[in-house]
Amino acid sequence: MNGGATNGGATRRSVLATSLAAPLLAAVGCGRRAAATPPARPPSDVAILREAITAKKNLIGAYAAVLAVHPELGGQLEPLLADNTAHLAELKRRLIEPAGQTRARTAVPSRQPSPSQSPPPTPSSSPSQSLSPSPSPSPSPSPAPAGRSAALTALRSAERTAAATHVAQLRTVAPSLAQLLASVAACEATHATALAAGPTQAAPGGTWSIRTADLTSAAIGALQVALAAEHAATYGYGVAGAHLSGRGQQDALADWDAHRARRDQLAAMLMAQGAVPVAAAAAYQLPFPVTSPDSAAALAAALEAGVTRAYLGTVALPVEGLRTFGALAMQDSAVRAARWRGATVAFPGLPPGALARQHAPAAGRATLG
Fold first, then answer.
1. Residue 215: phi, psi to the nearest 5?
2. For labelling, which of 31, 196, 217, 313 has a CA lying 20 to 30 Å from the CA of 369?
3. DSSP code of 316?
4. Are 119 and 113 in contact (CB under 8 A)?
5. Could you give the residue ranges of the DSSP H alpha helices within 213-245?
6. What pTM was computed for the model?
7. Which residues, listed in sequence order, are joined to residue 28 by a DSSP beta bridge?
8. Residues with Cβ < 8 Å from 327, sequence gap 6 or more?
9. What is the predicted pLDDT for the residue at 143?
């Protein structure tokens, strides 16, 4: 890392972020016409919201079931439950029912990735247990495992499943809903990490191959914003690492390597489009002085929050591959931010103005490190 970087007198600031319609009729002998089978249409935003609301209710019910059996886990689980409750409120706020539609209806089952499919990569966990979100609209929570470890593993599996489902859902919805689902999925990824047994490790910072056909100028611009954020994070970790030692320095080094890998991936994607990748600044102005391990950890958390916001821009693009890429990158940075912060937040990357109200971190957040 650039241990010689300083936190004053910056020369430049970082940029952290900002059908074909099938014929309806076909000739069939003697001039007769028959309706052709129309192409399959993706679910509407309303249908996706209903599914997400149902799944979130089920996940909240899973937490309630565990807390009923293991009240001693309240200190660890209640902050995560508060995040999920905030998610449910925001999803409900976004749902605008068609005029005149009755509330009494059969709920659309919540679509979960099947074993035969390949859901987007998420942090590894034990096999799914009894508390995975149920597609039932009004579920009776499954009995919580009797053992504390098994109960936490089941909740972790349920959070991972929920995150993977939201990434699959955001591919065809409107940009604002896609960003909300990506943010919720990023929070669920931090929950899965918080529920892991033993000390958590640095997020792997994996890379995903996506096919970048000819991209629009808006898509290239969003990738440039993400690249600028990665440049800033790479610089910032050089400052933070100089004030850390032991495990903290090891985590900073791993995170620095992850950002360098993502930086190189973004640069390659841009060059494949014939674009010139934005260059790193000679230095960056830090948001506050870094003089101790605590301020170094706060800087790392701030850097990751900025990276999360930057990737949120790619999720708004009408390009399925880039939406998935951005959503998964958000999960990596949100997990790292939560680890450095020592707490989760309900809506990683989303500005407060995008929500019905600002969801401030609750007291007694789960410790991740």
1. -100, 155
2. 313
3. T
4. yes
5. 217-241
6. 0.75
7. 32
8. 120, 166, 167, 170, 181, 182, 185, 186, 311, 315
9. 79
Segment 313-347, tens digit of pLDDT: 999 999 889 999 999 999 999 999 999 999 999 99
SS3 letters for 107-131?
CCCCCCCCCCCCCCCCCCCCCCCCC
Please give the Cα distance from 116 to 308 (Å, whole number): 30
What pLDDT was estimated at residue 214?
76
SS3 content of the chain, % helix, strand, coil (to 5): 50, 5, 45
Bridge partners of 33, per DSSP, are 27
Distance CA 295, CA 271 (A): 36
Asked if residue 182 lies in contact with residue 349, where contact means CB atoms within 8 angstroms, the answer is: yes
Q: 264 to each of 213, 228, 353, how far by Cα in Å? A: 19, 12, 32
The predicted structure's pLDDT at residue 121: 46
pLDDT means per 10 residues, the chain with 369 residues, are: 43 34 31 50 84 97 96 96 97 78 46 44 37 44 82 96 96 94 98 79 47 80 97 97 97 97 96 96 94 98 98 93 96 98 97 65 43
What residues contact residue 173 under an 8 Å CB cut-off, 6+ apart?
A: 45, 48, 181
Rounded to an integer, what distance in angstroms lies between the CA atom of residue 313 and that of residue 18? 7
- Note whether 182 and 327 are within 8 A (CB): yes
For residue 198, is it left (φ>0), alpha (ψ between -120 and 50) or beta? left
Domains and CATH numbers, the chain: 45-95+120-354 (1.20.1260.10)
Helix 246-272, helix 293-315: angle, nearest 10: 30
